[in-house]
Each structure stands twice: as C-alpha cells, then as structure tokens.
C-alpha cells in the first residue's frame, strides 16, 4: 500500500512538473530547469516536513499554468528592471499594470514620459530641417506655442530662441527620458521586493 502511494505521488509530481515546464514560455533552458527544480524541491520538502499529502500541496500551488504565468511575469519584470531599453521597460510596466492600480500608474507615467521626452528630442532635431516651423513663439510677453507647428506661426507672435532651441530641447528631452527610465526601473524593482516579501510571508 505504501509503495502504491509513493508511486501515485511520484506520478502526480512528475505530471505537474511536466505541465509547468510546458507552460513556462519563452525563457532559457537553464532558467526553466532552475524553476522546475525549485518547485520539485518545494513539493517534496513540504510533503516530508508537514506530512501533507502531495495532492493538497499541488492544490495550494495552483494549476501549473497559473504558477508558470507567475514565474514568467516575475522573470520579465526582473529583466526589465535591469534594462535601459524603453521597449523592455514598457513591456515590464505593462505586465506590472495587470497586477494592480500602482502598476497602471507606472505604465501611464512611462507612456507620457517617453512621449514627451521623445517629442522634445525630435523637435530639437527638426529645427535645422524646418527652422521656420520649429521653435518657441511669444506674443505680448506670453508663450503662444512651442515645438514643430504646421502651418508656421507668423506675426505678431515671434520666435525667441533661434538655434538655441536645438540644445535646449535635446537636453530637456534627454533628461525627461532619463527620468522616465529611472522611475520605471525603480518601480519595477520595488514591486519585485514587495513580491518577495509576500512570498516569504506566505
């Protein structure tokens, strides 16, 4: 009877781990193997230390697909938090947005920050190409518009920066992009630390 129970437990564990491996998605073989080993050790240690049957332990873990999704999300967010690529950072922020309101805020901060920073830098680069359409216009001491305008803004408004517009916009755009990158990376790292604390608490 004991042998039959052990065999049944082994089959359940192997089936669960095989399904987990299948659902882990796009990651390296070593990462996939490490996760499977970690879960395998957790299941067997829990069964030995607590005496709880394997079926109950697997039920607590949730389905293999759900667990794989959690690991995949965590890996994506961790990789994004170490990157300076806007594409990777926004993918991480988008994944974080599926987990709560704070993630949604981080995602929209990223969208707005990269749009504004990129727009400023692009506008600075367009000044030599479209000098009459790009700049900062003032009328009666008040800012009328800035950026690249179609059609070009004419009198009584006048453009005040001239070619100084180029370094100013390139600098402002670069600083905005850097600040946005810093905010997203920091937010992703904080979310990872909180997730680790919650996991330890569980």
UniProtKB/TrEMBL annotation:
The name this protein goes by in its record: DUF1700 domain-containing protein
Organism: Telmatobacter sp. DSM 110680
Keywords: Membrane, Transmembrane, Transmembrane helix
Ranges annotated as spanning the membrane: 96-116, 164-184
Lineage of producing organism: Bacteria, Pseudomonadati, Acidobacteriota, Terriglobia, Terriglobales
């Amino acid at each position: 009877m004991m042998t039959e129970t052990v065999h049944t437990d082994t089959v359940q564990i192997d089936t669960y781990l095989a399904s987990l491996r299948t659902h882990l998605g796009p990651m390296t073989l070593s990462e996939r193997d490490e996760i499977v080993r970690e879960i395998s050790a957790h299941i067997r240690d829990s069964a030995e230390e607590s005496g709880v049957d394997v079926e109950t332990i697997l039920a607590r873990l949730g389905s293999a697909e759900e667990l794989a999704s959690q690991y995949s999300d965590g890996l994506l967010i961790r990789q994004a938090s170490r990157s300076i690529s806007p594409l990777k950072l926004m993918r991480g922020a988008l994944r974080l947005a599926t987990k709560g309101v704070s993630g949604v805020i981080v995602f929209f901060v990223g969208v707005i920050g990269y749009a504004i920073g990129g727009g400023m830098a692009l506008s600075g680069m367009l000044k030599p190409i479209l000098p009459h359409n790009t700049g900062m216009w003032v009328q009666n001491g008040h800012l009328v518009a800035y950026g690249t305008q179609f059609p070009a803004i004419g009198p009584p408004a006048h453009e005040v920066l001239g070619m100084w517009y180029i370094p100013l916009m390139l600098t402002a755009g670069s600083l905005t992009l850097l600040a946005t990158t810093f905010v997203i990376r920091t937010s992703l790292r904080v979310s990872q630390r909180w997730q680790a604390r919650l996991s330890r608490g569980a």
